[in-house]
Every structure is written in structure tokens, then in C-alpha cells.
Amino acid sequence: MFKLITWFKSRPNKLGVRCYQNRLPTGCATRPSCRSDCRRSGFEFGFVGGDIGDHSMWRPRPRELHINRFPSAKANSKAGSKVEPGQAEWAEDEGPTLRWGIAPVSLMADDFAAALSVLPEQHHRIVSCVAAYQSHALAFADRHRVENVYTSFEDLAKCPDVDVVYISPLNPQHSELCHLMLNHDKHVLCEKPLCMTEEQVTKLLEKAQARGLFLMEGMWPRCVPAYHYLRHQILRNRLGELQHVRCSLGLPVHQGRLSLYGGVTSDFGVYGMQLALWVFREVPRCLKVSGKVNAEHVDVAADIELCFTRGKRAFIEVSAEKKLCNQAIIQGKDGSIKMNNYWCPTRLITEEVDYEFPLPGGEQMPPTHYHNRLGMCYEAEEVRNCILKGSSESANFSHSESLLLANLMDTIHAELGVGEFANRKQMPDLQRQLENIQDIVKDPEELVSETCRVLQDINTFETIEPIQKEEADPPRPKVMDAP
User: Fold this and answer.
1) Beta-carbon neighbour count of residue 345 at 10 Å?
2) CA distances from 6 to 315, 404, 407 (A)
């Protein structure tokens, strides 16, 4: 039985996005037709009715490769200068430099700093960073030439040199840190998910709008050229009438770490749901979900189906137990487009042509901790452009979509019995749960290397005292069948 989405009842059936910029790659270079001898067969997806092996696009045939070079808008370059593949030519405007604060130092923040390094120095500069351990903050500051180093989030929030803060701690901490930065009149770019519940997202958006500050959920795939080219193909009706989106994302994640991330739906599922919204541009009418929940009431696997008008469907499979094919296929009546690593794509595959979007920086750039994270430079430029224009949200990923995604996650968690929905009589304190989990980590250095272990309350600045564990609830069934 399908679950009606409550968001649809009380809100208009169109997303409140002002406009979508179809910024296409420029300076395209075309290669001669490339022959491919590989046999393409059907891809195995874990979806009901997911057989796409008979579609003609997977037959062996001559293919073309179009390489879309790094996009630029009327870049200022010397006459006769040659741009190597993957090199950037960004237009250097006369606007002020955007001064970033990093809260906290993490592997993700390290990749974000690397992404900023491919942009003009006049556009972006990291001026402050915070970490629970001073040694980690100093190491980050040395790598990226950061002036101000803090061990308190509140001190960074008060720093007068910071314009916007990049927030990337554990998922349950997003809401608290975003409120802290907004309270000190800082613009915010926060990694997904923006918050853990729709109620938290609503309060955060209301505060940002009331204070006239920019706030963006870091759905950076929306800003990369591959996504905008996909939008361009759909608008030109190259795929015909859209039918469905099928995507999967599965990577083995340690169960203890998955709890810190808030579950597989919050960490992986949002990528597939945002892609479906990007493709169909409407609010889903209903959803169907089945999945697996562990003894700690954390979802470790889920199969999600979103239903749209005119029979359109999105099928999303996520897993923290095994590796999946990690690709997406957008299917229309007249054609299909496939994206490998659809949360950070650099290539679109169609029936006859492969469109490649090389990452900026070229081969001289050091590798990032996470796959293709140099692509976050597009997101950083989006943030700068919005702030310079005085906008409170991004056209690529609006506040309405953040609310809708949060509503979808609430609905999925309720259906699976995840977190607070496992025992409605007891509303857990997510911050306390996070602290308890961190207290039992045998090697805290491993955790700190990826996130920031909070040792003090950021509001009262008092040391957090561990609390005794309560008696565990009886284990729930691990597998829930679809209704």
C-alpha cells in the first residue's frame, strides 16, 4: 500500500523554484567517432520491474565522445594562450572576496578547501577554521594558509572576518551549528542533510529568511555541468516524455559510523531523491518503501519508490551493507541517459554520444579524500554569486526542496520505524546520543580525523558529562516487508 505524502496536502504541487539556470559547458572540443567493441548488456538493479536490458541504447555500436571543457563565462585570457584539458578559465569580476569559515575541520572540509584552490584567489579565501583538537586545526591552517584557528564553534561564529561558514560535522549536529552561525549573522553552506527532521528545517529556514541571510543545503551535484546538461536535454525533449528514474547507491559502512551519520536514507537516499526532483520538477504524489533496520533502530538498507503524475516513477535503492552498481538511468519514451556515480558525475552516456565533463585543476591537483570532490568548486561559485546578488537561497537547490526532502525522509523513517519513530513515547536527544556513541569509540583519533568530536557544549561552553545507558529496548524485526 502506498503512503500519501503529507507535504503534498498542504503545499502547492509545484516546487517553489524561481528559475533554473541551464548553464551549458562552453569551449567544447569534438573528437572523431570512437569505436567500442565492448558488449553492453542489461544492468542489474534491485528494483521491482527494473528490467532495462532490452533498450536499444545498450546495443554495441559506434560511439562519439564529446568533451566539454571546464566552463567559463567570458574568461579573461591572453591572446594565443592555450588551456590544457581540465584547466579552468574563470571570469575574474570586481566583486569582493568571499571569506570562508570552516566548521569543523574534517576530510570533507579538506576536499572543499582543495576545490576552492582551483578558483581565482580574488573570489574565495578561507580565513578561519575550528576543530576540537588544536593540533588538527593548526594542521589544516598550515595546509590551506588559514589565519584564524579556534577550538570553539562560538569563537568562530563571533569572528568578524568571516562572511560565510561551511558546515560539515556529523549529520545530527547540522541544525545546532547552523542556528549558531545564523545567530551571529553568518551566511551558511551546510552539507546535506540540512537537518534531521522537517520541523528542524522549517525553523532554520525561517531564521535565515528573517535575518536576511543566505542558507543553502550542500546538494553540490546540482551545480556541476553534467546536471545542467541533463536539464538541457530534458528541456529540448531529447528523451521524449519522461517515464522513470532508476538509481542505486550502496557502499559498506561500519554500523557504528552509520549511526553517527543518521542512517542510510539520510546519508545516501537524498542523492537519489534530489535527482528525481531535478528530473521531474514536481512534488511526488505518494511513496512506497521497504527496508532493513538494525537493533539500534538505524536504517541500513532501503528500496524507495516515488510516484509522480502521468505514471512517472523514481526507483531508489540504497545500502550500507554492500556495494551496488552506483549509477542512475533517466528513461524517456525516445531515449535514455545514464550517469555513473550520479552524486558526482563527470560523464553522461546516451545512445550515440558520451558527454564528458573533466574535473577542474588537471592532473597536477592532488587527489581528494572523497570521489570527484573538486567539483564542489561549482557549488562555491554558486554561493558567491547568490550572496553578491543578495539572494537568500540558490536557484539550483531551493528552500522548498530542502523542506520537501526533509518531509520525504520523515515519512520514510516513520514507515521503517527509524530513530524516534521506533518508540514514539520516548523522544531521544540526538545530541546526547551522539555524545554517548563518541564516548565508547576506542580510538578517538580515527573519529576526529573525519569529523570533529564535540567536547564542550557550544552554547554554555561547559564540559559535557556522559550519561548512563538506559536499558535497551527489545530488538525490532530487522527486515520490513513492503505493505
Assistant:
1) 25
2) 20, 10, 8
Q: What is the three-class DSSP state of 25?
A: coil
The model carries a pTM of: 0.73
CA-CA distance, 266 to 249, in Å (whole number)?
A: 12
Sequence-distant (6+) residues with CB within 8 A of 22 are: 228, 231, 232, 235
H or E, element range at 183: helix 174-183
Locate all alpha helices (DSSP H) within 346-418, ordered by sequence: 376-388, 399-416
- In three-state secondary structure terms, 317 is strand
Surface-to-core class of residue 223, CB atoms within 10 Å of its CB (0-12 exposed, 13-18 middle, 19+ buried) = buried
AA letter at 370: Y
Find out whether 116 and 108 touch, Cβ atoms under 8 Å. no
In this structure, the chain runs to a length of 483
Contact 354, 63 (CB under 8 A): yes
Note the pLDDT tens digit of each residue in 245-288. 999 999 999 888 888 888 999 999 999 999 999 999 999 999 99
Over the stretch 400-430, which tens digit does the pLDDT of each residue have? 999 999 999 999 999 999 877 765 434 344 4
